[in-house]
Amino acid sequence: MSKTSAIGVFDSGLGGLTAVKELIRFLPNENIVYFGDTSRVPYGNRSKETITRYAMQDARFLQTKDIKILIAACGTVSSVAGNLGDEFHMPYTGVVNPTAYAAASTTKNGKIGVIGTTATINSSSYKHAIENMNSSLNVYQRDCPLFVPLVEEGWLHDPVTDEVAARYLKELQDKQVDTLILGCTHYPLLRSTIRKIMGDGVCLVNPAYETALELGRLLEEKGLAGEGTEKNEFPYRFYVSDLADEFKAFANSILPYDVEMTKKIDIEKY
Ligand code: DGL
Questions:
Q1: List 24, 51, 74, 151, catalytic entry
Q2: Edge-to-edge order in the sheet of strand 203-205
Q3: First CA to last CA distance, the chain
Q4: What is the pLDDT of residue 232?
Q5: Which of 12, 118, 124, 150 could make an SS bond with 41 (beta carbons 3.0 to 4.6 A apart)?
Q6: From CA 109, how far away is CA 138, in angstroms rounded?
Q7: What b/e string do you get for 119-134 counting C-beta neighbours within 10 Å, with b at 16 or more?
Q8: pLDDT of residue 231
C-alpha cells in the first residue's frame, strides 16, 4: 500500500456513485477503484448476517486491487457490518461516523432526523453515533424503503415520488427537526424533492460529501494522499457483479467523466 495505490470504494450497487462523485470533486489526485454489487442489490432489506457476508466478499475483492484505504459508501453496510478495517487490517471508513459528526455539529435546536433503508434504521447506527457524541441531542428515525426503487426507476421529479416522500417525512416534520441525514446512497438524488417538503430551514446532510471530507483528512493523517496519476492513465476503474452496461450508462449520467472501464466479475468467488 502506498500513496499511488487506489481508494477502494464499494456499495450494494450503483448508489455509491454519489460518493464517487464527491471523491472526484474533493480529491482529484486520487485513483479510485469501485465495486458495485449489482447482482445482489438491494442490501437494505436483508439480515445482518447476509449484509455482513456480502460486505466481506466485496471488501475481499477490492483488496486484490492494490488499495490503500477501504470505503463502504453504502449506508446499510456502514450501519450493520461492523468495522471492516479491523477485519482487513487497513484504513477504513464507513459513512456513519463522519455524517453523524456533521449533523451533531450543525443542529441548532438539538433535533436531528435520519432517513435510510430498513436495515440502517433498525440498526440505529446514526442515532447511537450521534448520542455518543452528545447525549442531549434528540434523534428521530424513519426508514424509506420505496426511495431506492423510485430512484432506480429514474422517478426523481415525479408526483408519485413527491407523494411517497411527503408520507415518509411527515413524522420528522412534526418533530420539527432542523437537520436531516440523507442516510442512504440514493437519497442525495432526491434532494430537491426532500428539500421541497422539509423546507429551506432544514439542513440536509449528505453522507457522500461528509465522507469525502473525512477521507481527505484520513489520507493526509496517514501520509497516503495521492499526487495525481500518470498522463493518459484513466484514474477510475469500475467493477460490478452484473449489468455492466446499465451501470456504465448510469455512471455516465451522474459523473463528470465518461466511464471508460466497467467490468463484470463473479463476486461469489471472493
Ligand atoms: N446502498 C444502499 C444504502 O446506502 C441502498 C441500496 C440497497 O438497499 O442496497 O443503504
A1: 74
A2: 138-143, 111-116, 179-182, 203-205
A3: 20
A4: 59
A5: 12
A6: 9
A7: bbbebebbbebbbeee
A8: 57
For ligand 1, is residue 127 a contact (CB within 6 Å)?
no
- Taking each helix axis from N to C terminus, what angle separates 207-221 and 96-106, rounded to the nearest 10 degrees? 110
Residue 126, amino acid: Y
* Residue 228 confidence class, pLDDT cut points 50, 70, 90: confident
Residue 184 designated active-site: yes
Residue 185 CB–ligand 1 contact under 6 Å:
yes
**Residue 46 DSSP code:** S
> Does 74 participate in catalysis according to the annotation?
yes
**Cβ of residue 41 lying under 6 Å from some atom of ligand 1:** yes
Distances (CA, A) of 69 to 7, 30, 129: 5, 11, 22
Instruction: Give the CA count within 13 Å in the CB-facing half-sphere of 117.
Output: 25
Q: Which three cell numbers stand for residue 17?
A: 456513485
Residue 229 in this model has a pLDDT that exceeds 80: no
What percentage of the chain carries pLDDT values higher than 70? Answer: 99
Is 71 buried (19+), middle (13-18) or exposed (0-12) by CB count in 10 A? buried
Atom index in ligand 1 nearest the CA of residue 15 equals 1
Q: Is 148 in the pocket of ligand 1 (CB under 6 A)?
A: yes
Q: Dihedral of the CA atoms 220, 33, 13, 122 (nearest 10)?
A: -30
